[in-house]
Amino acid sequence: MGGAAPSPAIDVRVTDAPLDTDAASPAGDAGAAVVFTGICRSENGRLRGLELETYPEMARDEIVRIAAQAAARWPLTGVRVAHRHGRIGAGETIVVVEVSSRHREAAFDGARFLMDWLKTSAPFWKREILADGSRGEWIAASEADEEAARRWQPPDSG
Amino acid sequence: MRLRYFAWLRERTGRAEETVELPGEVRTVADLVAWLTARGPEFAHAFENAAAVRAAVDRVHAAPDTPLDGVSEVAFFPPMTGG
């Protein structure tokens, strides 16, 4: 019944400009769109923001690779990612991930997969900007994030 | 070969990038780390904790045994904190 579904629309943007946090703009014949927004925290006022360093020549391609993996794994109609770098103030948006599909299960799972992989695999490194404007520490990758990414891999067999 | 350094790898080595001529016995990422470590104390300090250093070869995540044949760029960085 019917031909193959069209390839999902993959839209990846890396920018140092503030991100729009628009409502969902689902792609294709979507019945569901899940939008995740990652926000810079102030850590209860301790931080003015974060500074995100990036490997610009790798960033977009790596995110496209992760998006393509999600689209290969779930029946998605679209994946849209916008990731910011540079100085980001507390309360501002760091990343927006939108995943659309015909039905909601793939959209929720795809969005979770994307975020778990972006956390550990996308070439950005966060450094604190303290409340007084001075530079704080580099933020260390968390074991919880590494675990979250690993759980999407099939268990080793044999 | 072009080498890139990010975050505290950049701070410890004192450079964001450089171009080097590698001897023939440097064949993998691990070989390159060993060669860099021997260059001086700032490199030894940068690479002292192998678990805290990751690499990309021609802008794709790499493992210690990733070969360097025909590679034009290797980047070193801490575990990523994207998202």
Strand content of chain B: 15-25%
Note the total helix count of chain A: 3
- Helix-strand makeup class of chain B: alpha+beta
The first-to-last residue Cα distance of chain A is 39 Å
Give the overall silhouette of chain B: globular
**Percentage beta strand of chain A:** 35-45%
Radius of gyration of chain B, in angstroms, nearest whole number = 12 Å
- The oligomerization state is heterodimer
Q: Give the end-to-end Cα distance of chain B, rounded to a whole number of Å.
A: 30 Å
Q: How many distinct beta strands of chain A?
A: 8
Mean pLDDT of chain B: 97
Number of helices of chain B: 3
- Estimated helix fraction of chain B: 25-40%
Strand order of the largest sheet of chain B: 2-1-5-3-4
Describe it.
The complex is a heterodimer of chains A (158) and B (83). Chain A has 3 helices and 8 strands. By secondary structure, chain A is an alpha+beta fold. Chain A has a 4-stranded mixed β-sheet with strand order 1-4-6-2. In chain A, helix 2 packs across helix 3 (143-150). Chain B is an alpha+beta fold. Chain B has 3 helices and 5 strands, in the order E-H-E-H-H-E-E-E. Chain B has helices at 7-13, 29-37, 41-46, and strands at residues 2-5, 17-19, 54-57, 60-62, 73-77. In chain B, strands 2-1-5-3-4 form a 5-stranded mixed β-sheet. In chain B, strand 3 (54-57) and strand 4 form a beta hairpin. The longest helix of chain B has 9 residues, at 29-37. The relative contact order of chain B is 0.28. At the A-B interface, helix 1, helix 2 and strand 7 of A face loops of B.
